[in-house]
Amino acid sequence: MKVTTSDLLYQIWFIILCGLGGLLLSLMGLPIGWMIGSLIFACLLSLWPPKKSGVNVKKGLNRFWFLIGQYLLGIELGRNVNMSVMTIFQENWITVILVISTSILFSFGTGLFLYRFSRADKLTGLLATSPGGIATMPTIAEEVGANIGVVTAVQAMRVFLVVTIIPVVLFCIVNGSGTEGLTSNPVVESPIQAAGYPLFIWTIPIMLAAFAGAFIGKRIKLPAPWLIGSLLGVIIFESASTTFVDNTLTFFWPHSIVVIGQILIGTSIGSRFRKSMFIGLKRIMIVSTLGTLLLIGAMYFCAYIVSSFTGISLVTSVLAFAPGGVVEMSTAAVSLHADSTFVVAVQTLRIIMVILLLPSFIKFIHKREVAKKANAGTSIVG
Description:
With 382 residues, the protein is an all-alpha fold. The chain has 16 helices and no strands. Helix 13 (282-310) packs across helix 14.
């Protein structure tokens, strides 16, 4: 879609206004306040735009803002990678697979709950509650003839609830327990403090490597390619650079860039909300919200058990298994100093499992529904 200069200026102004919401929440001490505040402000401005605010984002922000946010976050995640994450994943892969499978089963249960207590059909209910991502599920819904509007609205609401509830709860729990540090892994020291001006030399090559990773990730159809691809690009470049550089490669990447990424992601998600999403969906949204809250509670309980038995920090475990999304939960992980790469790995694995298993399951259900209708029609005629 072509973006005019006027549209671009409106969108930049919209992002600045929403960024003020992020600033407000960040001043309250919430680590992921930049994203949550921007998301909430974007949602409010999209649903009830003030007449004299200059806000004119009728169809949501252009998707490239969301991709830029993912790209910046992917670089941040890549520079924080350490081998302990892979060790944890290797040692606990059976547990990870079991919990992910449990989350998928719970989401199916939530879909049946939505089907049973609302006017949504079975296919729509299952797709609306599946933790596969707001970008993926509506596409599958269109293929099988489910209600795209309901699927989009419920998926957006699920992401909104997960992003606004889980990081806040984790922040309160950690602060209340007086725990110093949210993860056993050390936080990466700011490169500008560690080595000074020469770090600028590596910034552009790193960004180019991340862009190449995102480009290739899109070509091979990775989930969230601008996040996962850029992350992998940074990791590969840093690993290869050890041939020429004796110590670990560091580069200039100030925290303000991560803040910009959070604002872009939060604003992009919030700008998708429209009043039309909720017209005639009151009962569906109430039931789906209740189902989502139950799913969040169930996954928190599973994450707590995993943390207790494996030694993975509670914050990392909860963010890894939360029914949110790769981008949203990895952003929270960066802000809460959790093992962000582990979170990305688990969230990506969950999406891959959903994408691989869900279409076949949905098509099976779809065929059964069609067969039932055909049999019912034959019985009436007979």
